[in-house]
Amino acid sequence: MIQTRRILPYISRRFKSNSTVIGIDLGTTNSAVAFMNSKNQPQIIENEEGKRTTPSIVAYKQNDILVGLPAKRQALINPENTFFATKRLIGRKFTDPEVQRDLDNVSYKIIPNNSNDAVLKSTNNQTISPSEISSKILEKMTSIANNYLDEKIDKAVVTVPAYFNDSQRQATKNSGKLIGLDILRVINEPTAAALAYGCDKSRKEGIIAVFDFGGGTFDISILDIEDGVFEVRATNGNTHLGGEDFDILIMNWILKKFKLETGIDLSNDRIAIQRIREISEMAKIELDHNEKFEINLPFISQDHHINYTITSSEFDEMSLPIIEKCIDPVKRCIKDADLKIKDIDEVLLVGGMTRMPKIRQVVEELFNKKPSTAVNPDEAVALGAAIQGGVLSGHMKNVVLLDVTPLSLGIETYGGIFSPLIPRNSAVPVKKEQIFSTAIDGQTGVEIRCYQGERTLVKDNKLIGQFKLGNIPKGPKGTPQISVEFEIDADGIINVSASDKTKYPKDSPHYGKPNKVSIQVTEIGLTDSEVEKMIKESESNKLKDQEMRKVYEHASRGEILVTDTEIALIQFGELMEEKDKEDTKTAIDDAKNLIDDIRSNKTQDVNLLNNKLNEMQKICMEAIKKVAIKQQQEET
Ligand code: AMP
């Protein structure tokens, strides 16, 4: 996963097009779409209802599929087929605790599919993946753009929470594929917001915190701006903290009060829950600027009505524990960026929840300064995505997002040594190829084990994928030309392939066929702190690792020499004098035992190993020499 992001002066990109590349903020609660207008400014496109954001809600109704406001409007009468906040489920397993937590809080059914992925189930037993829901929303946003621009739009930049792992990013890209929308890039929401903010050229330099509190996720990013160059120094957050939690808080407050008064538990009454949930969100929003809010829900259950009043101070008090969940990620993020709170020059608010006065107050206290709202919190992300779309289509030439790899990527080579192909901090997209070969004569297959990390030995790094390349034509060790290629695309998705460049002989059944195997690495999912831990460990172990590398290289060389000697023993053993044969065997065993001791860290005495190997080779060569002399004598 890509952890660090920089925005640098324009560098050439692989894609150029004159068609519009729209920016879509595919939000948990609401989505927005924007484009670069003729004045080279990002502009939000209003939907057919004249609204600048569209609810991320999809409803299945008989043979009809409703998206956006029409879906939201009918939610009350069709709660079990109205799917909202499904972005939280995308790319997750059913058993994921985050999914389990949602089971009781949504009005629709979530079930596991055959692969244990969390999927949705409608009342007519249709199973729908969260990616399909995203694709419906993307389709809607694209059609809003199509109508406004009067142009067939088929390319977009889509935003995702910073904490989305590779499989969630991939699932988002696949949502585009389902509707023929080419998602050129997925970029992080706070990074997009920062881009929108960066368009305001008045700020030349400084440290910016992007505090993004939306409907379903919370992200905090620290950016460093210098002479128009933006660098995101750290990101942190919580994929399961958002506006919904506040709605649920008020909902539970109502349910508890109602049960206490009437003895009736409404928690299994889906329609009642939907009504309570809607009014809870309304209460939350209204309490921004009102001291109190009347919760009126007539006939909620038989002839029972709800008529409660909630005050803003009551709401503030009950929400404080949720709001305080933002504090830790903020502190960690600032620490990761190697900064102190006082170093932050400006705090940018993004996401609908940042309209809540209590949140603004906590942010102000936390950063010790008034947060800025220069960019509309609901629109910043889509505007930033549109700017990135403008860059990709070649319409904007002064900024670009450049992602870098947080850790080195490479493969295991003989003896457990890590051979990096893509060093850490390489700019992506990136493609690197290296040629490897076999270590043993007649080897017909190689196991490619891919790792991420900075340590010399693969055992100290993270295994991210493995596969086998077989059907290598038999040949002496070191002769096959096995090309291993790592490619990271602009979304941070990693593909690894291995191909044998040797051509098959004419009599081979594989003649004329290429020998290539590829895998896509999914779910690396390392957090910033895990990456940092790995880097720190590699720094503190640098000298030790260098020593170990030398020792392991000696051991690997030793293993190759032992194998050579064993092969010689098989070829000439029969002809050797019995004592020479026994001495060679003993020398091989001695060398093997010492290599085992080195591999299991019992000793690191490479001088002793080299002596043993020299001795083994000498004994074997002497024995073979004797065989050769004997054969010559017999011939004459
Ligand atoms: P977003 O994901 O950025 O669209 O944010 C949506 C979330 O913000 C939802 O939970 C909304 O209920 C919440 N929200 C929108 N407007 C307000 C407001 N004025 N006050 C409090 N919360 C709001």
Automatic annotation (TrEMBL):
The record's section on PROSITE patterns has: HSP70_1 (PS00297), HSP70_2 (PS00329), HSP70_3 (PS01036)
Origin superkingdom: Eukaryota
List the InterPro entries. Answer: ATPase_NBD, Heat_shock_70_CS, HSP70_C_sf, HSP70_peptide-bd_sf, Hsp_70_fam
A Pfam family of the record is HSP70
* DNA-binding keyword on record: no
SUPFAM superfamilies membership: Actin-like ATPase domain, Heat shock protein 70kD (HSP70), C-terminal subdomain, Heat shock protein 70kD (HSP70), peptide-binding domain
Instruction: Provide a Gene Ontology MF annotation, just one.
Output: ATP binding
Keywords assigned by UniProt, alphabetized? ATP-binding, Coiled coil, Nucleotide-binding
The UniProt entry's coiled-coil ranges are 581-626
What is stated as this protein's family in its record? Belongs to the heat shock protein 70 family.
What PANTHER family does the record tag this protein with? HEAT SHOCK PROTEIN 70KDA
Q: What is the recorded name of this protein?
A: Heat shock protein SSC1, mitochondrial
Q: Which organism is it from?
A: Candida verbasci
